[in-house]
């Protein structure tokens, strides 16, 4: 798992830079999907531990990259798609929720080797559908536009608003990963079965859909920074309540809070990063942000949380995580205040 997240962090960072450098997302995404499908197919054919370890590194590199590039492709294509990113992203949650029910039964019937074949099939279907889809081209990618250099990336990392957001996202994604892992462990500790875990994952996935479908309406009524405060607050509430959970049903019910925590974070993080990013580094900004907040946070939290859970117990770990979520909430409020001041100055 650590290998997967480590290579994922590298993949997302490098892939975004390549897209900005070559002024294309579609072509990079197309080839990355081919490499990913091939790697997954051979992973389930490999019998040697070293071979599987190498393939996990390759899969992590491409899998994390295609996800964030697909988001960037949507956001950078045109304003219509950008405004409807939330509803578009909702279909991903629906697909993931359905797959948790179907794929498990298929594996039980045909074995794990069927996964590689299924991935080849769905990748081929995806590539056929997207073949004639317009690439995300940007004005800043014209030949006479500013060049993409490593120095530009250094300037990005000195962007205070960008770093402020990364810290908030890093903490919230840590909470997401830890809650996801320990909720499953707690379900088993409370006497739950694999069926209960499946219901937990399904409810969590489907709870994202209503918010994502209404994302553009929420963006019309509220500022992005206000929604970030809401998301942070519900991450805090869910983490705290999970610490006090005492039954399988309670854990499953708490997964509904993913609706107002993670589902808001999914789309609002994209808009907030887009707002503070230089025009010539839109894809790099998104991919680096996802590499740090999603990938690096998973690498740190999943390894560190296991050690802390053994040392201080799961409940105390969750209390500690609640304090971090409170810090993220405070930082979100601070960002909102500075964001409002920035918009006011810009209008004047």
From TrEMBL:
PROSITE patterns: MFS
Pfam families (UniProt xref): MFS_1_like
Alphabetical UniProt keywords: Cell inner membrane, Cell membrane, Membrane, Transmembrane, Transmembrane helix, Transport
Coiled-coil region(s): none
Molecular function via GO: transmembrane transporter activity
Gene Ontology CC annotation, any one: plasma membrane
Transmembrane parts of this sequence: 28-44, 50-70, 113-133, 162-185, 197-215, 250-268, 288-308, 314-337
InterPro entries documented for this protein: MFS_assoc_dom (IPR024989), MFS_dom (IPR020846), MFS_trans_sf (IPR036259)
Subcellular location(s) of the protein: Cell inner membrane
Domain Major facilitator superfamily (MFS) profile: 161-348
Membrane topology field: Multi-pass membrane protein
Source species, domain of life: Bacteria
Protein name: Na+/melibiose symporter
